[in-house]
């Protein structure tokens, strides 16, 4: 079997330049200069193409965020502590059926334990945040361990999902100045919530739905957990009810792009 070799573009350019050089009877010195110049030009063109592609992606992402109409009703659904091999697939199915995007604050340890599920979340177009590696109360740790909890989790999440998280939600919503400074140094925003579904407390699908519907306002960030079966059970009817009330589902990043007076708060974001 004959194997076809695919040469890089700049190599082909150099070969053409050499051919022209020998046909024209040039000197060795001039050929070296020609080859060097051609390669530099080829490399420059390649870099320009890469930079253009990156710039296009940045502009494309900005257009998505900036396309939100401040006159509409937006909320961000968030799910903590996953991914879970049993509950998360049900959550993803309900979100897909209602054309809803959400933000998943993953535990790094859970992402490592369920890499295919972490990848599926990312492939479905959802946003991924960091919920630390092992869900410890960060204020009880020393500064080194705080850094390890956040940074190790970020590495595990990126390895599993392909997304590097740029937002951290501290376990239990508890943080201090050291947690804030550590997250900021790692390029992360701290994100809390404005509506607590209390799914972790009630473990009742009907109460979860009622708690959210009674508390929801435009710009809200809703706290849920994709580790409780009752949360998955509540989601289909909850999403339908919210849609009927005129709400649109977006990611946390998109919510934070809206004017301040649109958001309900008191979610928290570190500015760096």
What's the gist of this structure?
The protein is an alpha/beta fold and about 270 residues long. The protein is built from 11 helices and 8 strands. The protein has 2 domains: about 10-65; about 70-260, Glycoside hydrolase/deacetylase (TIM Barrel, Alpha-Beta Barrel).
What does this 3D model show about the protein?
The chain is α/β, with parallel strands linked by helices. It folds into 2 domains: 9-65; 70-262, Glycoside hydrolase/deacetylase (TIM Barrel, Alpha-Beta Barrel), CATH 3.20.20.370. It is built from 11 helices and 8 strands. It has helices at 9-24, 28-66, 87-97, 108-113, 115-123, 143-161, 177-185, 199-202, 205-215, 229-244, 252-256; strands spanning 73-80, 103-106, 127-130, 167-168, 189-190, 195-196, 221-225, 247-250. The strands form 2 sheets. Strands 1, 2, 3, 6, 7 and 8 form a 6-stranded parallel β-sheet that branches. Helix 7 links the parallel strand 4 and strand 5 (189-190). Helix 1 (9-24) packs antiparallel against helix 2 and helix 9 (205-215) packs parallel to helix 10 (229-244). The longest helix has 39 residues, at 28-66. The protein is globular, with a radius of gyration of 25 Å. Mean pLDDT is 80; it is low at 1-13 and 26-65.
